[in-house]
Amino acid sequence: MILRDNRELETENDSDCDDMPELEDDGVKYLTRLPLARLPLFSPCPPGTPGPRLQGIPSFVNNEVRLLKHDNSIVREDHLDRRWEEATGEVVDEVIFLSRHTAVSNRPALTIHPIGVPHLQEGDVLPAGGKPGWAAPPNPRIGPWLRLLKGIAESHNLTPEFEVTLEATHHGPKLTHPQCFVEIGSTEEYWKRQDAAQAIALLVWEGLGLGGRASAVGDWRR
């Protein structure tokens, strides 16, 4: 889950990282899929340190970014943004999911897409979460990040083996804030490719302007 920076907000909590709360675990077992949350710059923790837990989901802090690592099907993680806000008091502004992509073609791919199932009607079966006739607000980073991802894939010699593509929206979860999915596909062989994972990591690093090396990509407020 990724959220944008609301710099006007400040924290009243001056506790150190070891005192950050662990929220109640609801017993759900989670998989290694990574939603990111970008939040206000009020954390006293240095980058990369552990953050609060959300119903058993661990998080990590890098300035205003929150990285959540969990083991559940993220297409059914409805209201993850609101749940984070309610549990931590931090204001979510945008959400980016890092996930695995599957396709009948089994073709290696790096994909970006918004979420929602506006093509389904009430009463239709929801094969992958969401709400019939609904789509979440798309993240404005989608276009700029797709162009950035293409450049990264080319520079890392992933193309033409990997197709870099913009997918149509086709699954959940239900969220309130602007969001998108960034995925590696399309089979287990490619999910394990370290060069593909490195490309996605670089996309997030450069796209969010982490490390102070460059400005964020696709942030319409800047």
From TrEMBL:
It holds the Pfam family tRNA_deacylase. Residues 11-22 have a biased composition (Acidic residues). Gene3D superfamilies: AF0625-like (3.40.630.50). Residues 1-10 have a biased composition (Basic and acidic residues). It comes from the Eukaryota. Residues 1-22 are annotated as: Disordered. Keywords: Hydrolase, Metal-binding, Zinc. GO terms for molecular function: hydrolase activity; metal ion binding. This is D-aminoacyl-tRNA deacylase.
